[in-house]
Amino acid sequence: MPVFKSVAIQSFLKDSQQYVLQIEKLIEKMNMHKVKDGELPDLVISIGGDGTLLHHAKYAHQHQIPILGINAGQVGFLADVECDGDGVLESIFQGHFIEDDRIVLSCEHQGEQYLAINEVMVSKVNSTQLIRYEAFIDDRFVYEQLGDGLIVSTPTGSTAYSLSAGGQILHPNIDAVSLVPVCSRHLSSRVLTIPATSEVKLNVTHWKGSEAVLSIDANAITKGHEIKSITIKKHAKVLKLIHPRHYDFYDTLQNKLNWETKV
Questions:
Q1: How many angstroms separate the CA atoms of 50 and 239, rounded?
Q2: Hey, is 68 helix, strand or coil?
Q3: 50 tagged catalytic
Q4: Which of 69-83, 100-114, 242-256 has the lowest mean pLDDT?
């Protein structure tokens, strides 16, 4: 018997129709219900890459519905299920899965609240101009930096842009966030990992006419001289990811990052 009675299928890809039809047939076979607009499902299925899942995860997080990613993209750190037959999906629908709770960040800027699953980033607008910012942790001044920007990353985001910028890989079960300077002018700048319970405040001070942009999960929110103070803290609710029973984080790292294995 399926443990999910209703399912929402989400996708942006034009060539994902084959996946949608395949999942719809399985849903019908197992006497499950595909929800219509306005209905709340028991499970959200996102078809695409990690970017697609990040978009649909905001809806899943808001309603505290678990989300499953079908990988039709390039990397697939989050969307890790290959839709190559009914076996894996049918097993998941029957309750054979791992539920993976991920921390989410809440970002406040000028009275507006934003959710970040991967990262919050402040970065420069113009390629030839640095930005200056101050970082406070739990109201304690930590440093002032000049550089291309700063990434505040969750463990989920530690394998995304943060990794490209020199950040550490954090296991998803670690309750922490990382502050990752991007091309700082100070050679002593290093990644700082702090408890997720900490509150991070960033003050952007404009330097020689430079402008900054605030981005949430790689989407620009606002830019220009209006960016001044940003407050980031752990959201009270987690994101509930669904993985197949055979999921292993270290196997994912080996496969996606092409790490060497035993010969």
A1: 14
A2: strand
A3: yes
A4: 69-83
Rounded CA-CA distance 115/154 in Å is 12
Residue 74, exposed/middle/buried by CB under 10 A (0-12, 13-18, 19+)? exposed
Q: Greatest CA span in the chain, whole angstroms?
A: 64
Position 12 scores a pLDDT of: 82
The overall pTM is greater than 0.90: yes
* Residue 179 near residue 191, CB atoms below 8 Å: yes
Do residues 239 and 102 make contact, with C-beta atoms less than 8 angstroms apart?
yes
d(CA 64, CA 169): 26
Residue whose C-alpha is closest to residue 40's, from 70, 11, 64: 64
Cβ neighbours for 69, distance < 8 A, ≥ 6 positions apart: 45, 46, 48, 50, 52, 53, 76, 78, 79, 80, 81, 241
Residue among 42, 50, 100, 139 flagged as catalytic: 50
